[in-house]
TrEMBL record, chain B:
Keywords: Oxidoreductase, Thiamine pyrophosphate. It comes from Amphritea balenae. This is 2-oxoisovalerate dehydrogenase subunit beta. The branched-chain alpha-keto dehydrogenase complex catalyzes the overall conversion of alpha-keto acids to acyl-CoA and CO(2). It contains multiple copies of three enzymatic components: branched-chain alpha-keto acid decarboxylase (E1), lipoamide acyltransferase (E2) and lipoamide dehydrogenase (E3). GO terms for molecular function: oxidoreductase activity. SUPFAM superfamilies: Thiamin diphosphate-binding fold (THDP-binding), TK C-terminal domain-like. It comes from the Bacteria. Pfam families: Transket_pyr, Transketolase_C.
TrEMBL record, chain C:
One of its GO terms (molecular function) is pyruvate dehydrogenase (acetyl-transferring) activity. InterPro entries: DH_E1, PDH_E1_Alpha_Subunit, Pyrv_DH_E1_asu_subgrp-y, THDP-binding. The lineage of its organism: Bacteria, Pseudomonadati, Pseudomonadota, Gammaproteobacteria, Oceanospirillales. It holds the Pfam family E1_dh. One of its GO terms (biological process) is pyruvate decarboxylation to acetyl-CoA. Residues 20-314 form the Dehydrogenase E1 component domain. This is Pyruvate dehydrogenase E1 component subunit alpha.
Amino acid sequence: MPSFGADMDSGLLQEWLVKQGDPVSKGDIVAVIETHKGAIDMEVFQSGTVRALLVEPGTRVKVGMPIADIDDGASAPASGASASEPAPQHTSDKTAVSTPALQRSQDRVKASPLARRLAENAAIPLQDLQGSGPDGAIIAVDVNAAIAGSDPGAAVPKPPDRSAMRQAIDAAMTRSNREIPHYYLATTIDLQAASQWLAAFNLEQEPDQQLLITVLLHKAVAVALRDNPEFNGFYIENHFQPSPDIHLATAISLRGGGLITPAIRYADQLTLPEMMDKMRDLTLRVRRGGLRSSEMSDAGITVSGMGERGVETVFGVIYPPQVAIIGLGKPELRPWVIDNTVQARLLVNISLAADHRVSDGRQGAKLLRSINKLLQQPECL
Amino acid sequence: MAADTETISYREAVRLALQEALRSDSRVFLMGEDVGHYGGCYAVSKGLLDEFGEQRVRDTPLSESGFVGAGVGAALGGMRPIVEVMTVNFSLLALDQIVNNAATIRHMSGGQFSVPLVIRMATGAGKQLAAQHSHSLECWYAHVPGLKVLAPATIADARYMLALALEDPDPVVIFEHVMLYNELAPPPVESDRLPMDKATLRRSGNDLTLITYGGSLPKVLQAAEQLSQSGIDAEVLDLRCLRPLDTTAIVASVARTHRVVIIDEGWRTGSLAGEISAIIMEQAFWELDAPVVRVCSKEVPIPYPEHLEQAVLPQPEDIVNAAKQLAGLA
Amino acid sequence: MTQPDKPHINRSHLIKLLQEMIRIRRFEERCAELYTQQKIRGFLHLYIGEEAIAVGCNQALEPEDALLCTYREHGHALARGLSMAAVMAEMYGKQSGCSGGRGGSMHLFDNSKRFYGGNAIVAGGLPLAVGLALADKMQQRNRITACFFGEGAAAEGEFHESLNLAALWKLPVLFICENNLYAMGTALSLSESEQDIYRKAEGYKIPSLAVDGMNVVAVEEAARNACTSIRTAGGPFFLECRTYRFRAHSMFDSQLYRDKAEIETWREKGPIVQLTNWLRDYHQLQDPELAEIEQVVEDEVEAAVVTAENADFEKVATLTRDVYTGGSS
């Protein structure tokens, strides 16, 4: 198969214009080759007799492969019409050099490249320094002060209670309250239907497979977000970017203080048992380590459940750049009026804190209504 | 502001350089739109026609591609042409000749032919000439291997860089910023002559480096002065040659001050400032004590009204603010 | 058809013209074959059918004159006297090529022959020709710069800017338009309001002429007259040579834009066929002599291929040479 162009790597033999035994002379058109630029006449550069046609019309052939055998009286059989050998394959002999996987840790110290170099040379752990740069970053002056040991103001040891995490939470919450115009809505939802369905479901499960009511609440929130995208996403550079997927950040507190909000990814697509597993798994990994970076960064909304602390209603602070946080209070048996009679029902208070730059109260109310509606049909979750 | 006998203008410095070149080498000639009878769009070549005649101070038709290409051909034919293109915006009509011919012929011919051509053009904003006469596209030319790109920012460089460009055997593009033509300085002396492709410190400092070139240099020096009053000791590095960039000088300055602001009248996206920033990242990362900051033009075509035009361009206040922020004093 | 009755048109000269055209033809046929074998890569634009122009015009040019051509310039290079081995090595991208291997088929250069290259930007070479001629004029050198280009160039601004400059400044440029009727696949009638290209030169007051580009003798005569005009009157001359390329624009071209009958019609009046037949009709050429010419050419082509095959590729270590004089930056 001849090459007609640098960007041709194969051709489709459309038609033979010669047959076995035909004499051919140099310059004759012997075949029509279909290429991505159209049909091109193929000429031969030898004279002789067609000994064999090696390829049927309709066949796609790589450039350089023989398609016919011409006896020119000199060459041995099986030399191709194009008399060319397949081009050498340029395989790369370079072995891929892999960079060691980056370690992502939550307590990464912010320090300038120069500060890192100086600290490393002086064998001073960056963790021991307090930064005076932007956002508390350690810069050269901090390291130099520590080396000199002369300026207590510039390089005091880090107070033990101000962990990096605490600082991160401080910074985020400060920014949130400074920048985000929050509005708050809350509603009480009757969980009677949900709890009855759950009791029936759990009856058939092994003890370790049983679901908690909080799983239903999370799932209802996730599904409700499908029709309320203005609460799921990020506010970046004066624009709201809706998240294409529904990943719920769930607030998990640490025993030593502080909290981490890893994501239940694709929460609306998980079955209830899957979500239960996921929540158990996250709690375990938060406390033991082993969170993936995607779980820490891509959630478009946070769900904060304070029920286990006996809190009735949560007034959340949005975690920027997210635009909403859902608060789950403690489900409790409380009086509830149904058909003009007071009944004891399992109720929960669900709250929404949302960014007014992105949504307004009417949309917020719609989201809460959607959650309520879903929880009245737990079998659909 | 009238020039007394003690000072000359940037315009006069370029004219002296042209005059010297025309006098000292019979192969040199000047060609371009309105360089002869009109005296040059920016009056740079005024009077040269009288001294050197129509053959050597050659008015051309409005055929940028034609006369720039003729410059390439004349250089191939043994001449030392200086081609003036009225502004960098117009040079886009000659881009084919500059990029496809001047910059490639040496390479395509396997080193058989050099193109000793000098192309001068005006660049930059500040004269309310709106969006087709004000842009700073130096970076486009600095992208192209085979070209050398100069940006004389001082009267001394305006006076001496042309001769260096003419001595160079390869095509050299010289950018003269329109706001510099009226700048004044004492007449430069021979000791002010610097090598063609080296950056130079216009001011030494310890706290941070301001890197710039061309028309932004006066603004940057003004900003450095203001900064010194705030206790910030800024170094000012004038690149002078945009291709090849003097990487050594850039890295050396960063190694001294560890903080950098780059001031570039080009648009930020894809700018020379971006290139310099990348060089610093690649070659001086461990010297940085703060992120590199860029002060560039806003990403709009240059508007006509003065207040909008000025809002687009890097201003001394912008440079001061960026530098203060970088020094942690904002 | 111009009869070959001028003083310089004797039999040996005609045989020389024929041999020169056959030399270009066979060289390019071999290139086509080598291309399909992937020995030659990139674009390959064959001159087959147009040989009379390069050969005819070169008869009128002196060694000190300059030539600028297009990306279809193998014929001009060979006619100008570049060694076939150096041109073939360039096609291979080998270091011994006439451009050190850096240019390839479209960028053949040779300083010693004042051959300023194949320029692959349509009309991009015309301003250079103006500049070369300007340099000659300013240095009072009696030289001509011959600039070859296709009729497609007439649509470019650089064509008009260059014609105007050359006429305005009375520069010694011989503009040679090789009108093969198609700019790649676009017929002249689809792209030009004035299809007599030579008439465009009239608008710039450049003396101009159209000639049968398939008749090497007619081309030579026209080129000689044009050169005489340039050397005596001083200004440029514009020669339109009407021709046809028998092969595709480049190798990868299915020629959807023209039919085979049209190609056949032109092939019958091809420059080599035409001259061969004329010589035979007048009993000036015997078969053994023709066979001998073919053999000499074949041997030269074969030797060029062997040389190119055996030549070295440049080492990657010198990759950045020749970007700037004396090194790279």
